[in-house]
Specification:
Number of helices: 8
Oligomer: single chain
Distance between the termini: 35 Å
Number of strands: 0
CATH architecture: Orthogonal Bundle
Helix content: 55-70%
CATH class: Mainly Alpha
Order of helices and strands: HHHHHHHH
Strand content: under 5%
Largest sheet: none
Shape: globular
Length: 145
């Protein structure tokens, strides 16, 4: 697994605002808002029988496993992986049948308004965390001024 911590943090911020015990109206649980069915699927893949989605360590372990899985489904394209984290891999696969072209145009054309907003917000969060915590990005921004 080679996920950027700033991307994971940006996703967690969007999913739960860092509230470890949050439960959505549809049953998504914890920091990374994992659905119980998805948690059970991940537990099977990881051969884990004892886990709690409300436990921050288990939740982040399972959420990052799933985000890594979505990355692998979409050739490490973080934009498609994040869209898939929200809408599901099947839906996103249907949207990319003819390629994605310009990423901004692709996001604008996502047919689910929730997912369209989700992708935008996760990447806004991601960029903000990179600006704060990545010395490489800070150096580039400082040299541009």
């Amino acid at each position: 697994m080679n996920l950027n911590p700033a991307l994971v943090t940006g996703l967690i911020r969007q999913e739960s605002r860092f509230e470890a015990e949050i439960l959505s109206v549809v049953g998504a649980t914890g920091l990374m808002q994992i659905m119980p069915e998805t948690g059970a699927w991940i537990a099977g893949k990881k051969r884990r029988s004892n886990y709690a989605l409300r436990n921050p360590e288990d939740n982040i372990e399972f959420g990052t496993f799933y985000l890594d899985y979505t990355h692998s489904r979409f050739n490490n394209n973080s934009m498609l992986a994040v869209a898939s984290y929200n809408a599901g891999p099947g839906a996103v696969s249907g949207w990319v049948t003819s390629g994605i072209g310009d990423p901004d145009e692709f996001v604008h054309k996502i047919p689910y308004s929730e997912t369209r907003g989700y992708v935008k917000h996760v990447f806004e969060n991601y960029w903000n965390y990179l600006r704060i915590y990545s010395p490489e990005i800070q150096a580039k921004l400082n040299s541009a001024n």
